[in-house]
What we know:
- The mean pLDDT is 81.
- The protein folds into 3 domains: 14-96, no CATH class; 115-172, SH3 type barrels, CATH 2.30.30.60; 180-276, 2-Layer Sandwich (Alpha-Beta Plaits), CATH 3.30.70.100.
- A hairpin with a 2-residue loop joins strand 1 (121-124) and strand 2 (127-134).
- By secondary structure, the chain is α+β, with helices and mostly antiparallel strands.
- The chain has helices spanning 2-12, 16-45, 49-75, 82-94, 98-113, 164-167, 194-223, 260-276, and strands spanning 121-124, 127-134, 138-144, 153-161, 170-172, 180-188, 237-242, 247-255.
- The protein is elongated and about 115 Å long.
- The strands form 2 sheets. A 5-stranded antiparallel beta sheet has the order 4-3-2-1-5, with no helix packed on it.
- It is built from 8 helices and 8 strands.
- Helix 2 (16-45) packs antiparallel against helix 3 and helix 7 (194-223) runs antiparallel to helix 8.
Amino acid sequence: MENNLQWLYKFFTYSSIQVKFISSFLALIIFVIIRRIIVSIIFKNINDSLLRYRWQKTTTYIVFILATITIGRVWFKGIESIATYLGLLSAGIAIALRDPITNITAWMFILWRSPFTVGDRIEIGENAGDVIDINFFKFSIMEIGKWIDGESNTGRVIHIPNGKVFTDNLANYGKGFKYIWNELPVLVTFESDWKKAKKILKDLSMKHTTHVSKAAAKKFQEVSKLFMMHQPNFDPEVYTSVEDSGIKLTIRYLCNPRKRRASSQAIWEGILDAFEKEKKIEFAYPTIRYYEEPNQPPKVS
């Protein structure tokens, strides 16, 4: 009986360390429950996926910061200054966690300077894709290109450390201007009526891209207030050059980065239909031509 009483006494008589562990555990549980309640409310009331994602991420960050401060005050009760506590904490982990700290710093840079946001199409280093997630240590993209033509999705999700924004070149397809130029080379034979072919290509490109050119011209006025940019020609152009196998007519036009393949297909289908009706226009391809002089005996080697 006496042994049982001693065990109960030890069980209910907590040391300061035990109290801190229990308090930290309870605080963690409470913050997790609060986050889940807020997230469930967000999912019930917000239908827009991008807005819902941003609210979910913001809630996670706020809850994490509050939980870190609360648990820190439990363990460092004598330190009244939160700034001092955070300074001690950062100094302690900086030596052992260089890469994670770099990623967190890069994460803050991404949030602050916004070189890209969720939904943007970017290229960083050798990887390109649509940004689908950003967190403390990495961001994720839905890969495009590689073995897929026309910059369509491959289906692979690539996770990239945030620190890569400090070391690798970053290209954002839609930041600022939001449009890109695309080119389609069309090769016709030397015997073709290349002037008529050029007019057909010009008309087709105007037909399929006029609305884009107008929107791009309007967008350029906004972007020129932020960046030093010379105003380009937004109308589609057809450039002429000579190749070994024929005359190359290159269509250059503006398009939405996500619709490059669709716009190329629409223009190419128009080209095929138009050239099919023209007897004086033929596509060129690599050929070898032999010329024989008349009344000459065959050469023997």
